[in-house]
Amino acid sequence: MNEQNESFLFLLGSSRRDGNTEQLVREAAAALPAQTSKDWLRMSEHPLPPFVDIRHEPAPVYETPTGVEAMLLERTLAASHLVFAMPLYWYSLPADTKRYLDYWSAWMRVPGADFKRRMAGKSLSVVTTVSDENRSVATPLIESLRLTADYLAMQFRGAVVAFGNQPGEALNDASIVDRIGALLGAGVAA
Ligand SMILES: Cc1cc2nc3c(=O)[nH]c(=O)nc-3n(C[C@H](O)[C@H](O)[C@H](O)COP(=O)(O)O)c2cc1C
């Protein structure tokens, strides 16, 4: 894959605008090559209805997604690199992002979407912010995304865990933006 068709989808999972995670990722993304395509989604601005598991209903019908769901599916498939950028909420993923992930289960079964095959080979990176001085509390979040990437034969690129609570606080770590930049840069072909 060459640089022309590198495309990042930044999935912003905080329930507040311009929080720590978003600030960090926007700064790091600004250093990506100008020709790199960058798409931004604030998950809280695109609410999905509660996910319903119909897998074991008699003759389940997976309708072609419409509305917000169709938009999210299309932008997910259009990206070559998915960057999950979200705070740690109760040692896990914030609910909007988790619900979006639950929809992947349905998209795998939508006739014609070819979701599983088209997700294979995309990369997945994680940027998260914690307020606990022990950054290993983010391990459950990171591992759930690593395993999800493995399940879909995606390439898990790694994770950066920032520390902060008040918006802007995470930027006090002088090396954090560079570390996120390195994580993103690992997804850009030379
Ligand atoms: C609902 C909720 C749950 C949280 N759970 C945790 C947690 O389990 N561990 C932790 O270290 N911080 C937790 N925090 C603190 C946030 O991770 C922290 O404030 C972070 O800076 C928020 O990121 P943001 O500025 O990108 O929104 C929680 C915050 C909220 C609002």
Automatic annotation (TrEMBL):
<dbReference type="InterPro" id="IPR005025">
    <property type="entry name" value="FMN_Rdtase-like_dom"/>
</dbReference>
<dbReference type="InterPro" id="IPR051796">
    <property type="entry name" value="ISF_SsuE-like"/>
</dbReference>
<dbReference type="InterPro" id="IPR029039">
    <property type="entry name" value="Flavoprotein-like_sf"/>
</dbReference>
<protein>
    <submittedName>
        <fullName>Flavodoxin</fullName>
    </submittedName>
</protein>
<feature type="domain" description="NADPH-dependent FMN reductase-like">
    <location>
        <begin position="9"/>
        <end position="166"/>
    </location>
</feature>
<keyword id="KW-0285">Flavoprotein</keyword>
<dbReference type="Pfam" id="PF03358">
    <property type="entry name" value="FMN_red"/>
</dbReference>
<keyword id="KW-0288">FMN</keyword>
<dbReference type="GO" id="GO:0016491">
    <property type="term" value="F:oxidoreductase activity"/>
</dbReference>
